[in-house]
Write a structure and sequence with these properties.
The chain is of the alpha/beta class. About 35% of the residues lie in helices and about 15% in strands. Strands 4-5-3-6-7 form a 5-stranded parallel β-sheet, sandwiched between helices. It has a 4-stranded parallel β-sheet with strand order 9-10-8-11, with helices on one face. The longest helix is centred in the C-terminal third of the chain and has 21 residues. The protein is elongated. The N and C termini lie far apart (about 75 Å).
């Protein structure tokens, strides 16, 4: 809607009181009347949009929010004779600095797209699988509106939806015009390797139809030929296992920082069974049991009296020191192999005294080593 559509009859009223002989067309001077009216203190006829920086766009683009205000609190991005000017070509959204970084993951089916996506997810990327290419610019725009909460987006694109895939070239051009920083990662494998992988999982190739697996592979290679040529990073996974692929992705996207390792330290009682999700299990039953000390029996390993008793026993402090060194070695290996989570189970008879006290001390050591750590006392309180 133009300014004159918003205020029907305004020009006619003015023509009756001013120079009726003027023959200038309304479209030749669209901003003159608001400027004259404001100079005379007259209302502009724009209702609540006046004074809110909304301009002529109405409420559809966030008018009144103040996002379009210029330097110094001006009511709009530009002025013409005191009136707001909107060309209709301004890009909606947020400043360029807030546009998320984008990675598009594509490649041959069976070459490891899902593994690459999970690796980026572990590194803190917001990952969307099998998003139609036409929606990628929309996804980036939504990320830009998140006020920095979604700074990196990874999108997995494949040829399962052929009609959608045809829009990828147009979407990439749209992203380039917006100044979006994007990279294309293409996963590749040999035909023999892909055939073995599909036969191993007993699944058909998504493009083979009534033909053989090799027919589907050939059709997919042809569809992806142009995209492969545009890729910023091509990874051949023919001779790579899952861990080696993750290491390659880490090398490209983790930066100089080592991949983050998260640990859960869980105390438990052997009489209630081993934790099923434990990666490492240690046994504190080599230490004297505070349960047999009457004044300590009601307490738990969280109480200072029990913790002091446990670590005053021979071997307790030595175990903590040496096991911390062992975990330092294990953690480095986990990072190299792409393992991001580890659960360390610390057990005693009932999971109330010794295991609780040792878990707390061990977690504090891990935190000091820079490992994000959560402590869980599975069986404390069950007695």
């Amino acid at each position: 809607m133009t300014e004159h559509d918003e205020r029907p009859g305004t020009r006619q009223d003015r023509a009756e009181h001013e120079h009726a002989h003027r023959d200038t067309a309304p479209q030749d001077r669209p901003h003159q009347e608001p400027a004259e009216q404001r100079a005379a203190g007259a209302p502009t006829g724009r209702g609540s949009h006046a004074g809110h920086g909304g301009g002529r766009d109405g409420g559809g683009n966030g008018a009144g929010s103040g996002d379009d205000r210029g330097p110094g609190g001006d009511s709009g991005p530009a002025q013409d004779n005191g009136a707001q000017v909107s060309t209709g070509k301004e890009k909606a959204g947020v400043p360029e600095a807030a546009i998320p970084e984008l990675v598009i993951i594509s490649g041959m089916s069976g070459a490891g797209r899902s593994t690459a996506a999970k690796c980026l997810e572990d590194l803190g990327w917001f990952v969307v699988d099998n998003l139609p290419p036409a929606l990628i610019p929309t996804m980036v725009e939504l990320g830009a509106r998140s006020q920095g909460n979604v700074a990196r987006i990874a999108v997995v694109v494949d040829v399962r939806g052929r009609r959608f895939f045809d829009n990828l070239r147009e979407s990439l051009a749209d992203l380039d015009s917006r100044g979006v920083t994007r990279r294309i990662v293409f996963l590749e494998s040999s035909d023999d390797t892909l055939v073995r992988r599909f036969e191993g999982v007993r699944r058909p190739h998504p493009l083979q139809g009534d033909g053989r697996i090799v027919d589907g592979i050939a059709a997919e290679r042809e569809l992806l030929r142009e995209l492969r040529g545009d890729a910023d990073l091509v990874i051949d996974t023919s001779s790579l296992n899952v861990h080696e692929l993750r290491a390659k992705m880490d090398a490209q996207f983790a930066g100089e920082e080592e991949p983050e390792l998260r640990a859960t330290v869980m105390s438990f009682g052997f009489k209630y069974g081993l934790p099923v999700d434990a990666d490492l299990v240690v046994d504190m039953r080599f230490l004297p049991n505070p349960h047999w000390v009457p004044e300590l029996r009601p307490y738990t390993g969280l109480n200072e009296e029990v913790a002091s008793y446990v670590f005053e026993r021979p071997g307790a402090k030595e175990f903590l020191d040496r096991y911390t060194e062992l975990l330092r070695l294990v953690a480095a290996g986990y990072r190299r192999e792409g393992k991001r989570y580890v659960t360390i189970a610390v057990g005693c008879t009932g999971g109330k005294h010794r295991s609780v006290a040792m878990s707390e001390k061990l977690a504090a050591r891990l935190v000091a080593e820079g490992v994000e750590t959560v402590v869980v006392h599975r069986d404390m309180g069950r007695e």
